Each structure stands twice: as C-alpha cells, then as structure tokens.
Amino acid sequence: MPLLLAFSLALPTGVLALEPASATAVTLTLRQAVDLALEKNPGLKQSANQVETGLINLAQRQANFAPDLKATLSGSERFDKALEADGSRDHRNYENASGALGSSLNLFNGFGDISALRGAEWTLKEQQDIFTRDQQTLVYSTVTAFLQGLSDHELIRVRTENLEGNRRLLEQVEALYRAGNRPVSDLYQQQAETASAELDLLLAERNYAVTSRKLLQTIGLPPIAGVALLAPEVAPLETALVAREQGSPDLAALAQRTDLQAAEQQIRAAGEQVSVAQAGYWPTLNLGTSINSDYTELNRRQDFSGQFFDDNLNAVIGLALEVPIFDRQLTRNQVAQSRIQQDNARLSLLQQQLQAETELGQAVDDFRTAQQLIGVTEARLTAARQALAAMEERYRVGAATLVELTQARTNYTEAGYERVKARYGLITQGVAVAYYQGDGERMQELLAKWENAQ
Fold first, then answer.
1. Cβ(117)–Cβ(61) under 8 Å?
2. Reported pTM
3. Which of 162, 278, 315, 446 has the most CB atoms lying inside 10 A of its own CB?
4. What range defines the domain where residue 354 resides?
C-alpha cells in the first residue's frame, strides 16, 4: 500500500484540464481520485468492517477466560383453596419471591479456549492483511482507470486532429474539382472519409465517457454527467521508466505480498481450529458458586427482610467434572472436518502463490514490451507525419492519388493513437510490476529520480 499510494500521490498534477468542467462534472487530479477511492469505495468499507468483526471476535475470545455473573429474581402469587376438616374451603392466597446470584468459571476444557484465542488472533491478522491488499488493489485500480481515462481523452485529440485534417482536405478537393483538376470520385471519396472521421471522433468521445464513469464507479462516486481529469506531466516519468532496467521476476519478493501473508495466517487459524475440535476428547472442569434466598407469605412469623436476607439465605460452591464417554462421533467428525479445512487452506495458498508468480512474470514481460513500444511508436509517428506531409504536397501538384493520401493520413492517425497507448501503457505497466511484486524499493527509487527531475 505505501508504494502504490506514494506512486499515485507523486504524480505531478498539471494545469491542463482535459475537459472543461460543467456544473455537474467533477474535476479530479490523480491524488484526489485515490483519496476519494480510499474514503468512499464501498468494497473497501466492507473490508474494513471485516477487520472490525475480527477485533470483536478476538475481544470475545479474551473475555471467555473471565467468570460470568448472573442475577435471577422471580416472584409469584399463588391462589389456593384449601379443603378444611369440616368440608369448608379456606381461600389461602399468598406470594412467593426468590433470588439468586451465581457465577461460573471454566478451569479446564482441553485447552480449547487457548486455541480459540490463538485462532482469533491469526484470523484478525489475516483480515488486516486482506484489508491492506484491498487498499493496494483499490489504489492500483484507481490509477489504472485514471490513466485509461487520460489515454482515451488523448485519443479524442488524435481523432479531432484527423477530422480537421480531413475537412481541410475536403475543402481542397472541392476547389480542385470545381477547377476541373480532380474527378468527382475524389470529391465523393473524401466526403466519405470526412464522415468516417466524424464517426471515429464520436466513438472516441463515447469511450471516454464510459471510461470516466468506470473511474467514478471505482472511486465510489455516482455516475454524474461528466468528469474532468487534470493531466499529470508524464514525460519525466516516461523517460525514467524507459531507462529502467527490469530484470527477471523477483519471486522472493512475493513473500511480502499481504494477500499471500493472509493465506498463511488462514492456515495457522485453521490449525488452531483443529486443536479446538480436539479439545472435545478432554474432560472439562468448571467452578460454580451461587447465593440464593427466597420469601413466602405463608411464613407469618417473619417479614420479607427477615426471611430473604437472614433465615433463607444460603450459598453454594462446587466443582463440576464432565468426562466425555460417547458423543456419537461428534468430536471425531469435527476434528476430521477441521483437518480438511486446514488442508484446503494450504492448497489455497499454493494456488495463490502460483497465480502470483504468473501475474508477476506477465507484468514484467508486459513492462519490457511497453518499454520497447515507446521507441517504436515514436519512430513510427515521426515517419508517418513526414510521409503525410510529403503525400499532401504530391497530391496538391497531382503526383499522387487521393487513395494514397487517404492511406497516409490513416497511417498517421493510427501511429498517433499507438503513441498515446504506448505512453500511458508504460506507466500502467510500471505500476503493475510494483503491485504484483509487492516490493516498493526500486519503484520508490524511480519516483525519487523523477521528482528530482521536475
């Protein structure tokens, strides 16, 4: 969590607003997006509630070592018709009252309470590790969604530039057609290309709207009319990431991933649950004590105070030993089930480790590819720009066809789009390596170099 949060907060928020903020739009920097996500995301709040549940469960396990204390008060009125010797009935209605104060303390239960306490401690650590990983996942998702939003908005710029270029060319073709220097087919073809560019722009704007709403959903905000993202200055970070030497995946660093640590805590908690189940084989010993008293209206010689607090007052203290002889295989089956759960926890950890190694290896490969794409896409964009300029001049003097010019413009537009994707893809993959590895030392070193370059 500290690594990814530091990464997201370290991105310098520039002054370039990607979209004019309307009355219903939200203006967001990357810092604000991450802070809001950590504050408002419902899934993270549920994860925090699980930690609170673990704290409550641990407190209850600790309280189980203390004696309990119960007070009981009861009262009744009896309606009795007694039959006398002469055959008459005497209505004898009277009241009764009783009270007791009792306490019990478990002295031994096969060490089940100790195992249950240890299990609660491991479970709490597991929930805390899961919460930390959920924070990391949320930060990673927010950063990724934010960068995707920037990439989609840059695509709008590329599509807008393409549309403007096609409109200018359409005006040129119309002028040439009126002068009799170009056939009508060129005019119709360029009109179709301009309409296609308008459609591409509409689709790009739609994609940006969808991405923006997904970002708001990740944060935990309602899908409002729009969002204006403030773009960070990514050039220094891009330069640093391109220069970064990425070695083989550091599988040893995966031990620091909190989700794997949580799986290990789950194994330990499952082991304690086996001990809890095995406690059923042992006898239990409990200490009990109570103070009791009662009052009846039939005793005419003593008032309430004399009976309840003097004559009828008594105290009891004793030990109760319970030895299991036959419990219909209940304990045996519970132990067997607990061992299966413990084995499943081990298998789950193994599965998570294999998945983590795969994810890290893929993230490293994707990062290396993203590094190479930066130079490739930059060279392609430069070449496509020069080719388009040359083709426009050739078409103007009649040395090239409109088909050739259209293809050159298409290549230039695609090169611009690929350059945008490569730029933000490199940053995304840099974050991904840090997220899947769980070791922030190298990334923090990179961030320090980047900050010094500002």
1. yes
2. 0.85
3. 162
4. 2-65+112-281+328-449
Residue 262 lies in a domain: yes
Q: Per the structure, how many domains does the chain have? A: 1
Predicted pLDDT at 83: 56
What percentage of the chain has pLDDT greater than the value 70?
87
Cβ neighbors of 78 (< 8 A, separation 6 or more) are 93, 94, 95, 96
Asked if the structure places residue 297 within a domain, the reply is no
All residues at 6 or more sequence positions from 47 whose CB lies less than 8 Å from its CB, including other chains: 130, 131, 134
Dihedral (Cα; 153, 156, 158, 159), 10-degree rounding = 160
What pLDDT is stored for residue 14 in this prediction? 43
The phi, psi pair for 424, rounded to 5°, reads -80, -25
Residue with tokens 């001990």: 275
Residue at 97 is within a domain: no
Query: In CATH, what number is assigned to the domain containing residue 29?
Result: 1.20.1600.10
The string of pLDDT tens digits covering residues 146-169 is: 889 989 999 999 999 999 999 999
Query: For residue 94, what are the β-bridge partners?
Result: 78
